[in-house]
Amino acid sequence: MRSLISPSFALILCLAAPLLVHAVPRSGVDKQSFGKTADGVSVDLYTLTNKHGAKVKIITYGARVVSIEVRDRAGKLGDVALGYDDVLGYEKDSSYLGPIVGRYGNRIAKGRFTLDGQTYTLATNNNGNHLHGGLRGFDKVVWTGKGSVVAGAARLRLTYLSKDQEEGYPGNLSVTVIYTWTDRNELKIEYSAQTDKPTVLNLTNHAYFNLAGAGVGDILNHEMRINALRFTPTDATSIPTGELRNVKGTPLDFTSAQLVGARIEEKYEQLISGAGYDHNFVLNKLSGKLGLAAEVYESTSGRMMRVYTTEPGVQFYSGNFLNGAIGKQGLAYPRRSGFCLETQHYPDSPNKPGFPSTVLRPGGRYTQTTIYQFSVRKGRYRER
Ligand code: GLA
Fold it and tell me: How big is the chain by its Cα radius of gyration, in Å?
């Protein structure tokens, strides 16, 4: 039978085959040193790669996402997560770039709550309120990491034991966070925790995104859609009043895609007190069920990000307090150069009996799953 390919072409194919194999990225996890903390504790950097060559880098200090390299419309990889080049950058960070936040992500009014008749006092590190777990929250401790590849996807398991009374919270709390980077360009974060005394818990991830590229401009031209008909308005110190307010007729209506910058300077009292968007949205879905929280599109790169979560709320924070700190590759992160979508229970739930409970008891198990899914879209999102 006559061969379909000539002998010389076959020879070229044979010689090039090893190179081709090399050029196709394989899913995997790579571990390197990221240096040491000021106290001399070693920090590791894990690189999770998927079959498209897209990468997520995570360090054990604060379980922080350091970078997310995903393709744009032209197929070019670009980093869409804000971060720093070294441990010192993260130790000095006051904006919470990329970490797991806990024990209580977001605020607890006046740093006090009562559980089973006992009152607990926490650090008041934000306008007289408790924010993001206190002075040394989960973002500032070194976690234990273990990389693996499970069902073809790169995965990093991080664990941390928070001792009874750490930052004033009751109970020894053992926390596990699993980051999985799939071939569908999904960064899946699975949280679980158990305690030996009743406590409160509200874990989230505080990654800042800029889909045009970290450090190359503001996020005001991103188109945002949030799957929420209501939000939790706050007082002047960002503590929810307890009301669940309809977004309709307000600049917080993202039920259809809106440019982040279109209404951010409106003289709406909630935007004035929050210095922009810094609000918890009440998701249109059942708590505990994985469902859409938000989708964001950036038209110059064509990048799109969808966020799915089992949590009942998401904090949309438009980076209002970013202050120009120098991040990766010497690039500055000025005000509104990144945004966060922090999937969570509502702020101040320990003091708001009407909000879904954040209490965890011995024998119970805290779980939450959130997925940040990246893709590209041709043309403008609104013309879909
Ligand atoms: C959260 C808060 C903001 C701000 C940032 C960190 O998103 O809601 O008010 O504190 O963290 O700068």
Answer: 22
User: For residue 1, what pLDDT is reported?
Assistant: 42
Structure tokens at 180: 């999985």
Three-state SS at 52: coil
| 130, 206, 222, 279: the active-site residue | 206
Q: For residue 51, give the amino acid letter.
A: K
- The DSSP string of 104-161 is B-SEEGGGEEEETTEEEE----BTTBEETTSTT-GGGSBPEEEEEEETTEEEEEEEEE
> Contact, 285 vs 292, CB < 8 A?
yes
Q: What is the dihedral of CA 13, 19, 20, 23, to 10 degrees?
A: -170
For 28-383, which CATH class?
Answer: mainly beta
Name the phi and psi angles at 378, rounded to 5: -85, 140
pLDDT, tens digit, 9 for 90 and up, residues 227-246: 999 999 999 999 999 999 99
190 tagged catalytic: no
Q: Which two tokens stand for residue 144?
A: 């234990």
- For the chain, count helices (H), then strands (E): 3, 29
Q: What is the pLDDT of residue 274?
A: 86
Global pTM?
0.93
Domains of the chain, by residue range, sit at: 28-383
Give CA–CA dist 289/168, Å, rounded: 31
Q: Which residues of the chain have pLDDT under 50?
A: 1-3, 21, 381-384
- Measured at the CA of 139, the angle between CA 135 and CA 145, to 5 degrees, comes to 140
Cβ(317) – ligand 1 distance below 6 Å: yes
Report which DSSP code applies to 357.
P
Q: Residue 342 catalytic?
A: yes
Q: Tell whether omega for the bond before 377 is within 30 degrees of 0, i.e. cis.
A: no
Residue 178: phi and psi, rounded to 5, are -115, 120
In 3D, which of 51, 48, 54 has the Cα closest to residue 77? 54
CA-nearest residue for atom 12, ligand 1, is 95
Q: Which two tokens stand for residue 192?
A: 């679980």
